Amino acid sequence: MCYTLTQLVQRYHQRLVLSIDRLEIEAGRIHALLGPNGAGKTTLLHILAFLATPAGGTMTFNGEPVDLSASNLLQLRRRVVLVDQHPIMFSTTVRGNIEFGLKIRRVGTRERLRIVDEVLDLVGLDRYKTAAAHELSGGETQRLALARALALRPEVLLCDEPTASVDAENQAIIAALLQQINAERGTTIVFTTHDRLQAASLAQRTLVLENGRLARTTHENAFACSFRQDGGAPDGPPRCMLHGLVAFPLPPLRTCWPARRDGRIHLDPERITLCRAEERPDVVPTFTGTVVLVMAEDNRIRVVVNIGVLLVVLMPQDHYRRENPRVGDRVGLHVAPEGITLLD
Ligand SMILES: Nc1ncnc2c1ncn2[C@@H]1O[C@H](COP(=O)(O)OP(=O)(O)OP(=O)(O)O)[C@@H](O)[C@H]1O
């Protein structure tokens, strides 16, 4: 586990703004921190970045108790980088901004220049290397801030609303970049957002904060559900209702679907097959819905479909090319029985 926070409390002027019984951040994963304004997301990020000392509770980082004493702080802060929502650039060139942190770490000139080229290429800003940082647009500034952070090769990258104030094109670039960094470097990433869709599409785990409390943690495609025995044989498989919104029949494969009424269910994104709803009248899909996001990920394509709740489908490249789903398309989804797991 990268971080474990227990009984964590934070206060501003005696006012309680965070109170978290337990929170875990898994190493090498992308986590979304989702919540409304004032929920405590930025406050929590500052604690994870070792920039603020919590008022109470315990914290471990890579299994070790966190020691925030002055003598230890510097080496802790070197392992984690926070990218602010409104990053402040130094009044120098794009290259100068990236080199700054490297100079502090006494990285030699030749290696600095190599890293500058590498990260500018990564964020697609190579042609701006000698431009003044202050001349960049909002979206480009956010990408430069990411390049500046990535130059330091952090174990953990924390991003405060990385796409909140940028246009759609830059949003897509930044989202793809975060996935690339996570996949190629194994960097643990935590980003804050108000956007449920972004959380569902980008993160493997979503932590929901409400009024400073961790309301719930959701894994990709894990849903609260209830089971109903409506119609059919009384001892046959029940129907399953996701978040009280979408019902589907459970396949008659398990010997003992739950006798209880409520639970949590996981639908494996790799065991969901997507087809164009109108082109396969012979197939009765488990769900139909509208594509809301398509994004390349590693050697697969991540497609998010709104079926009443947001469902992530991971499509192999060849299947994606065949079906070619686009945002706005109506599609059918078939969930393989072995892709359905009851949690808890
Ligand atoms: N430096 C501060 N001094 C006093 N109160 C603060 C300070 N920073 C944040 N707060 C308060 O703490 C609470 C949590 O704020 P925080 O910025 O962490 O929320 P957030 O979820 O990041 O919100 P947003 O989505 O608007 O950025 C809010 O009520 C805020 O007013």
UniProtKB/TrEMBL annotation:
SMART domains: AAA (SM00382)
GO molecular function, one term: ATP hydrolysis activity
InterPro entries in the record: AAA+_ATPase, ABC_SmlMolc_Importer, ABC_transporter-like_ATP-bd, Mo/tungstate-bd_C_term_dom, P-loop_NTPase, Transp-assoc_OB_typ2
Annotated ranges, domain ABC transporter: 3-236
One cellular component (GO) term of this entry: ATP-binding cassette (ABC) transporter complex
Keywords of the record: ATP-binding, Nucleotide-binding, Transport
PANTHER family: SPERMIDINE/PUTRESCINE IMPORT ATP-BINDING PROTEIN POTA (PTHR42781), SPERMIDINE_PUTRESCINE IMPORT ATP-BINDING PROTEIN POTA (PTHR42781:SF4)
Database matches in Gene3D superfamilies: P-loop containing nucleotide triphosphate hydrolases (3.40.50.300)
Domain of life: Bacteria
PROSITE patterns: ABC_TRANSPORTER_2
Descriptive protein name: ABC transporter related protein
